[in-house]
Amino acid sequence: MSRQEQPVDVVLVGLGWTNAIMGMELAQEGLNVLALERGEDRDTVPDFAYPKMADELTYGVRYKLMVKPAKSTITVRHSLAETAVPYRHLGSFLPGDGVGGAGTHWNGHTWRPMPEELRLRSYVEQTFGKNIIPKDMTIQDYGVSYEELEPHFDFFDKVLGVSGKAGNINGKIQEGGNPFEGPRSHEYPLPPLKRTLNDTMFSDAAKAQGLHPFPLPSSNASEAYTNPYGMQLGPCNFCGFCERYGCINYSKASPQTAILGALKQHKNFAYRTGCEVIKVNLSDDKKTATGVTYIDAKGEEVFQPAKLVVVGTFAYNNVRLLLLSGIGQPYDPLSNTGTVGRNYAYQMMGGATLFFKDKQFNPFIGAGSNATTVDDFAINQIDFAKEGFIGGSYLLAAQTNGQPIHSLPLPPGTPTWGADWKKAAKDYYGHAMSISSHGSNMSYRDCYLSLDPNYKDDHGLPLLRLTFDWKENDLRMTQFMKQKVAALAKGLNPDFLKVSFKDIGTHYDVRPYQTTHNVGGAIMGTDPKTSVLNRYQQSWDVHNVFVLGSSSFPQNLQYNPTMLVGALAYWSAKAIREQYLKHPGPLVQA
Amino acid sequence: MDSNHTDDSRRRFMKGAMWVISASALGSGVMLSANASTAPELSQYKPVFFNDAEWHFVLAACDRLIPADDNGPGALQANVPLFIDRQLQGDFGQAKDWYMKGPFLEAPAELGYQSPLTPAQTYQKGIAATDTYCQKTFGKVFADLSAEQQDALLTQLQSGQVTLTEVSAKQFFDFLLQNTKEGYFADPIHGGNKNMAAWKMIGFPGARASYLEWVDLHNVPYPMGPVSINGDRG
Lengths: 590, 234
Ligand SMILES: Cc1cc2nc3c(=O)[nH]c(=O)nc-3n(C[C@H](O)[C@H](O)[C@H](O)COP(=O)(O)OP(=O)(O)OC[C@H]3O[C@@H](n4cnc5c(N)ncnc54)[C@H](O)[C@@H]3O)c2cc1C
Ligand code: SF4
What we know:
The complex is a heterodimer. By secondary structure, chain A is α/β, with parallel strands linked by helices. In chain A, 23% of the residues lie in helices and 18% in strands. Chain B is mainly alpha-helical. Chain B has helices at 3-16, 52-65, 80-89, 119-138, 147-159, 169-185, 197-202; strands at residues 21-22, 31-32. Iron/sulfur cluster binds next to loops of chain A.
């Protein structure tokens, strides 16, 4: 028998961006809100204080702030015919752990999706015809439109204090911004960050080729700022220890710096750390949740009764919790039935490194999202029928850190050790810049999440299994971007050039870091046969369970996910506040 | 991660420092000592993880992976073996954060680390097997080979051309190279990068972490030398 805690109105599972938002919204509503976070408590002081944060080995290489695979990991295989093996140490993606989640050690690239991406299947079918969609590609519409989300994008921009330059305000194209973006109701709250040498060079090269460069929208504050919750950000000092680190300086928007400080002032909000939720408990008819079961720091099992359960444990963790709880029908790719686990997708990246003997970039002068970018090859700019793929990328020149253990690019042909390696390190540190592409990834019938039959966690519960590989469509997309990046790179006339894009036939590799933009598996939509959640991120099956995060995405954006993740959390919160609390039940009739 | 070692070395450091001054450059509350060099001499260091034979191997291998010359410090001058000895005693060596439950299956390389061995065990088995191989082939252990022979052997380990008993030669080499570079470039608080000499060689300012006034000074070399987490100046 597990110990039982006092009932609450709302239990939030996980305390990253999504549940910080939901916590604030529902605490404002006067509800009794409790967050359960599996990791430890964390705040700027003392956890991110200078100088201990400036330690590349501990945080950048040994991943002190990230999840420990010993405690929580997944298994991976490339195809249905293989046996999956564990993701034993971190590489490809670096999920968060502890209060603030991955939002403490993200970069702060803050993109809205394109309107077309939220209704991708409809857009492709209407514009190019049904036939161009490959047979097993399972892309879908989100069931919510850009226009419906715009007020939430706008508000989240203000919560984050995004530094940037708008390209489209209420349909009017703005000089210096992204002319291809969806219309926004307001300019960014802060002006762009100062520019480093690499991105001014990229900007010139892009303009020379008729492209439209603009500063990357950034949640690294360019000036002192107070957000709508009264939380204060200080100007980013380009410390160069941003991604993988907590901000020493109250400059990077994180759940702590942007929301939690204000949320903790609400007496009807509380949180407990070291509490790993292992199950959402259901009533006998399985139509409602009665609360959650967690294992506390002492290893004791606890039942926490609640009227409303909001799951915000990061993309694939959400899927595992649904599967462990028996919410919804698990997806089966063979029969193409069930939904939970369906449509997992990732992100398609590529890049070029340019070496200039006579240029000094001072690469340690970096901020997480200090970059110039172009969106001329975005989803709404490419003729998919002509090019033979569906998707798109933004291209960027970023300078985020010069930490020499994990980012010391050297010219092609340099040996990996010995006197010549050392000489190259001496000669070329600080003389390289990069141009990368950050692109979409479509969803497919056989790329999905399920419980693993062989491997278990410390509680004896099955790990989640990922079945995923790159598909030709997405590899063709990245090969298209390779041409564009190579053209820009050559325009800058470097002494040496290294170009690295995935070739057709490349398999997914868990070893090098790519992005932590894992999506899908508990997707939102309009039809319970092909989605786990309705358009308000409410479970079709259990109406008092809402599931937040990029697990809702039916395929990946060409962008970083957090702006959409946050806006969707506000969208769900509004539906809960204005509709659900008055009439608890399904917000959409199946 | 390895917090014990970090704390230990900080305590040792604080004891060893003759005097401290407050440094506004590092922000309030941070104490800084002027050039207090507390890094031990490698020749005086008594390894804790490695036994004598293993220590000889590691000294010799690190010396080839990053040799000393006019361009900058070698791995031995930078105390890299000392760093590795500490890492292998700590969380990294013991794979404390890694998922190490079985079954351990063969899988394509792209699916990542699938060995039942911790890094510490990989070193122990890798060194023993390499020395056995060298004895058989050259009649000497690795540390006693010529520099050219050592380079050739390291190259073969890296490419997996030699097969070692009980351990993957390539995995062993990969750890060795990764840890050597880590010890070369990590903050001296972890025991390597003695006197921040590797940072000085490439021009990395270490833990300064504050550059707002330098962002738009383009194509100008940054003028200040490195500082470390302990407050040493390079
Ligand atoms: C290195 C890195 C760089 C990134 N850069 C960017 C970027 O530039 N732009 C961008 O848009 N996005 C970026 N991201 C992604 C971004 O961080 C995520 O989109 C965002 O943090 C997701 O928020 P979330 O609330 O869904 O999940 P998280 O932030 O992961 O929070 C989930 C929380 O739930 C907790 N939890 C998990 N399971 C349980 C359980 N069973 N019980 C209790 N608690 C649990 C976790 O410990 C965690 O704290 C980056 C991510 C990483 C790791
Ligand atoms: S680069 Fe700026 S936002 Fe990032 S951690 Fe440093 S000070 Fe904070």
